[in-house]
Amino acid sequence: xxxxxxxxxxxxxxxxxxxxxxxxxxxxxxxxxxxxxxxxxxxxxxxxxxxxxxxxxxxxxxxxxxxxxxxxxxxxxxxxxxxxxxxxxxxxxxxxxxxxxxxxxxxxxxxxxxxxxxxxxxxxxxxxxxxxxxxxxxxxxxxxxxxxxxxxxxxxxxxxxxxxxxxxxxxxxxxxxxxxxxxxxxxxxxxxxxxxxxxxxxxxxxxxxxxxxxxxxxxxxxxxxxxxxxxxxxxxxxxxxxxxxxxxxxxxxxxxxxxxxxxxxxxxxxxxxxxxxxxxxxxxxxxxxxxxxxxxxxxxxxxxxxxxxxxxxxxxxxxxxxxxxxxxxxxxxxxxxxxxxxxxxxxxxxxxxxxxxxxxxxxxxxxxxxxxxxxxxxxxxxxxxxxxxxxxxxxxxxxxxxxxxxxxxxxxxxxxxxxxxxxxxxxxxxxxxxxxxxxxxxxxxxxxxxxxxxxxxxxxxxxxxxxxxxxxxxxxxxxxxxxxxxxxxxxxxxxxxxxxxxxxxxxxxxxxxxxxxxxxxxxxxxxxxxxxxxxxxxxxxxxxxxxxxxxxxxxxxxxxxxxxxxxxxxxxxxxxxxxxxxxxxxxxxxxxxxxxxxxxxxxxxxxxxxxxxxxxxxxxxxxxxxxxxxxxxxxxxxxxxxxxxxxxxxxxxxxxxxxxxxxxxxxxxxxxxxxxxxxxxxxxxxxxxxxxxxxxxxxxxxxxxxxxxxxxxxxxxxxxxxxxxxxx
Length: 728
Description:
By secondary structure, the chain is mainly beta. Strand 16 (295-300) and strand 17 form a beta hairpin.
């Protein structure tokens, strides 16, 4: 138990401010810095302050210790900086759930072998008196890499972001109809701007940092006072939603792009329309203004960019070459080049000063959605659909690095005026802050979403299957990758390991099932036919496999011969589980139901109804009596298999629940959700016991035969190896 927990209010206040007192004394040489560094590497103090206050005061304590006037050994300062950076990275998690502190520190710091860090991590196992999930590998973004922090608070896709000229404040716009104002130094949400009645698609900030201008699908543009959050005026005139907005550097004009196929030039002070710019024949998606305030460049769904004279409103040029909708445009600081990102999978560079309108193609990627250029004009930072952010050298077109962390489309990117940080806004509802010049930290991972994981019955190996068309075999005790299995031609969705630990069976969207040797990785056999590749389960005797056959049936087949045993007709299943005695199967479907089958006869015994959205996964208790299902209605349900009755609903996730597993002793349920968390539940009571934030949506989880080792994976491409600690 934490020895700080029983302090009086007066003593508690003193302890919470103890780092400040020690730092002040240290500057006057009254105490040595070891007292302060010892306090900030004492897990019980860190935990106490984390539970008592928001994360930022704790982060500030490390700045005190890192001050040049405090005499602390350089190697110790390095450890303190790493701990501080780890807490920064976890700020969004800890602000909502302080109980995740230990798991977050383990997941981010385990790979650092510094004595102070390892001693602090070891202390967590001694002091925690509750159940928690301990990472066995560095499965979260480590400190001192490119990712600085994650900002959370929006409830829907974040579509745009802008930064004040001093680089201290960011403003984001979201489909949740709000804008949010963020302190970039602390990551704290300062205020929420409400007033739009539909999705907010664009945002810009005036060059003096005083006003925010937003564009919305409610057909309006709003002007806000940044310091108060109040609405100063609403600009109306577009006849359809407004997608984009830009402000001249002299703060006089606003240019907006709309789904009504036009752009409008507004007087910012009066709100009057100077010009309506017509020429695009489809929705205008992006607009940027040259540094001299003379030209506006727009991009649209009509696959073109257009150059406009802001004074006259005349169209000067049409830039053609893209074969897909133009999503974003950015202009270099010298005003000579325009960079455009489009749905044709290309990023193109255009020379505004040249008569030659043929674009330079930098690279092909999958649906670029956003682009920003650093203040020195050297780098282009680009976001695409379901892929990492990419950094390019604009002179050479060379890709310099990737920034991995978002799990959905990166819709917008902004760069701080000093060129050090990039701020990205994503459909995963987060905003991330990146250090463009930090060293990359490499981690073993798939190159795309992970759809399924399985653990061998001897607890030695795990296998993951991914949309990158591969499977990976992992050493479970160490979490290290052993080998990669290649051969499928499309997404690999399902994977099981035979009970004798000799073979891996995988199902793919290429409509094949492959059988592999688990230890050599050799492909032994490919089964072809009308397999849809979603579902796989194997009986405990290893004789029969159940897989999806058509969109209305499951096939039971003999593992050894590959021959059909029988067809289970009447369910479009996406998951299936088999009772330990091999007698019954339970299938889960997007039709919101589950079905219980007699495998031997192929008879449907029950239809389980109660979920209000897709059912994504199902697990069966070790005694074969209970089934637990996971659904897009954000819940899990517990069912009596024999009677088909619903026994309990587990409520706690706030987004789709995609995977579920039950511990071998039948005590606990583990669930993974697109709310990016893994939860552990008491099966009997339905109580939510502990949560672990995985940094990305969770698609799959499995539990080792030891009952405490868990493997989870999903859209972050990273495999998480965890241990359930604190069990009685």
